[in-house]
Amino acid sequence: MSDKPILLWFRQDLRLSDNPALTAAVASGARVLPVYVLDDKTPGHWAPGGAARWWLHHSLASLGRDLEQCGNRLHLVSSDNAAETIRELAKSTGAAAVYWNRCYEPFAIERDTELKSALKADGIEAESFNASLLFEPWEVKTKSGTPPKVFSPYWRALRALGEPEAPEPAPERVAPLKAAPASEKLEDWDLLPTKPDWAVGFHDHWTPGETSAQVRLDRFLETALDDYKEGRNFPAKPNVSRLSPHLHFGEIGPRQVWHRTVAHCHAADRNPFAGSAEHFLKELVWREFSYSLLYHNPDLPEACLRPEFENFPWDSSEKPLSAWQRGKTGIPIVDAGMRELWQTGYMHNRVRMICASFLIKHLMVDWRAGEAWFWDTLLDADLASNSASWQWVAGSGADAAPYFRIFNPVLQGEKFDPDGTYTRRWVPELADVPDRYLQKPWEAPGNPAPDYPAPIVDLAEGRERALAAYQDLGEAE
Ligand code: FAD
User: Is 66 annotated as a binding residue?
Assistant: First the structure.
C-alpha cells in the first residue's frame, strides 16, 4: 500500500455505491481521507437553504456511519474557501492525489478548475469523475453538434448514446490514514433549526441517507411505477418516487435509478421504454436536461434566457409574495401546495407548476422571488432543476411553456384533486366546504370556511392583466 494517501472530496455524491471517485481511490490501493467541506459563506455561491441544511446534517451523519462500517471516518471541516482548504489538507497530509465527482453549478466549475491547476502546481494529482448524471452535459448533442434546447430532441440525443454506464457496488473497506487529522463535529455546524424547530415535521416524511434512498427506490418500483404515467399528476396519489432530495445530495445516482428501473421491468418481462416506465425514465432525463441548460447557460438562475422578459412589469410589493409564501392567498390548491412545502420540505410536481404559475402570472411577481423561496424551503432545492423549472413556467426559458398558457388554479384543483383529499389535508379550514365549492370557496353559500382568506386576486382579472403585460412585451404574435 502506497504511503501517500488520496484525499476524497465528497460534495453532492454522499454515497458509497456508484461513486466513481471513491471506487478509483480504493482501487489505487492508497489510504483514503474522505472529506466534506462546509463552505456556505462564500459570496456569490448559492449556499444551501434552510431545508437543505437539515437534510445535509442527516445525510452527512449517515455517510459517516457508512464509512465507519468500511473502517474509515468522514473528515469534516468548515471553511469560507473550500478549494483552499482542500489544497492545504492535501499538502499537510502528504496526499498523492485529490479525487472528486464533478458538480455543474457555474461557481463550482470555476472553483474546481482553479483547484485542479493549483494542485498540479503543488505536484498533487487531481482527478474528477461523473457521479451525478447519466451523461455529461457536453456529451448530449444534436446531429449538428449543438446542445438541444428543447426536451424531445434532448431525450432522443441522450438515447442515441446508448445505455448509461452500469453502477459500481460500494467498496467493503476504505483504508484509513494511519494518523488522520482531527475532524470538526457535525453537531457544531448548527445545520439544524432550533428556535423554532420548523423542521420538526420532516422526520415523519423523510429519512436521509444512502440506505433509505435505495429502499425508497425499491418501494416505488414495486408499488407505484405501474401507474406512474397517470398517477403522477394527482398529488393525493402515492405514485411519485420522492427521490428528488436523495438525488440532489447524491445519496443515490441517476445511473442506479435508471438501471434498477430497467432491470425491474425486464424481470417482469416488460418493456422499460414504453408506458409508465419510460415516462419515469423521461422525468429522470428532465433532470439531466436542466443540468444541460445550466451548464450551457451559466446565468440561468439569475437571468431570463429570453432577454425580452427582463422588461416584464413585475409587482415587487410585499403583500402578494408574502401571502403566497405563507399559503394564505385564498386560492385553495395554491395554499395547499405552499403549506405542504413549509411543513414537509417537498411539494408535488403538479402543484409546484400551479403555485409557480399563480405567483408569476396571476400575481405578476418576478419568478426569481419564487425561485429564492423554493431554494430556501425545498429539501430537493437544486440549482439546475429549480432555475430551469421556474424559467419554464415563466415562459422566459428555453423549452418554456407558452406565455398564454396560464393555469387556472380552480380547474387544476378540480381536475387533479377531484375529491379534495390533498387540499383538505393541507388547508384544514376548508374541511366543511362541499366538494363542488372546495376549489372556489368564495362561491359557497353560507360561508362554510370563515377562517379562510378571500382570494388575493380575482382570477379572471389577474389572467387578463398578465396576458396584457405579455402582449406589451411583443409576445402576442
Ligand atoms: P418523480 O416524478 O418521481 O421523478 C423522478 C425524478 O426525476 C425526480 O426525483 C427528479 O430528480 C426528476 N424530475 C422529475 N420531474 C422533473 C422536472 N420537471 N425537472 C427536473 N427533474 C425532474 N426538482 C428538483 O429536484 N429540485 C428543485 O429545486 C426543483 N424545483 C422545481 C421548481 C418548480 C417551479 C417546478 C415546477 C419543478 C421543480 N422541480 C425541482 C422538478 C420536480 O417538481 C421535482 O423534481 C419532482 O417533483 C420531485 O419529486 P419526485 O422525486 O417524486 O419526482
Answer: no
Probe ligand 1: pick from 158, 216, 244, 355, max atoms within 8 Å of CB? Answer: 244
Is the beta carbon of 292 within 6 A of some atom in ligand 1?
A: no
Tell me the ipTM for this assembly: 0.99
Q: For the segment 39-95, what is each residue's pLDDT rounded down to a tens digit?
A: 976 666 789 999 999 999 999 999 999 999 999 999 999 999 999 999 999 999 999
Q: Which of 248, 282, 283 to mutate to test the pocket of ligand 1 (most atoms within 8 A of CB)?
A: 283
The 3-class secondary structure across the chain, one letter per residue, is CCCCCEEEEECCCCCCCCCHHHHHHHHCCCCEEEEEEECCCCCCCCCCCHHHHHHHHHHHHHHHHHHHHCCCCCEEEECCCHHHHHHHHHHHCCCCEEEEECCCCHHHHHHHHHHHHHHHHCCCEEEEECCCCCCCCCCCCCCCCCCCCCHHHHHHHHHHCCCCCCCCCCCCCCCCCCCCCCCCCHHHHCCCCCCCCCCHHHHHCCCCCHHHHHHHHHHHHHHCHHHHHHHCCCCCCCCCCCCHHHHHCCCCCHHHHHHHHHHHHHHCCCCCCCHHHHHHHHHHHHHHHHHHHHHHCCCCCCCCCCHHHHHCCCCCCHHHHHHHHHCCCCCHHHHHHHHHHHHHCCCCHHHHHHHHHHHHHHCCCCHHHHHHHHHHHCCCCCHHHHHHHHHHHHCCCCCCCCCCCCCCHHHHHHHHCCCCHHHHHHCHHHCCCCHHHCCCHHHCCCCCCCCCCCCCCCHHHHHHHHHHHHHHCCCCC
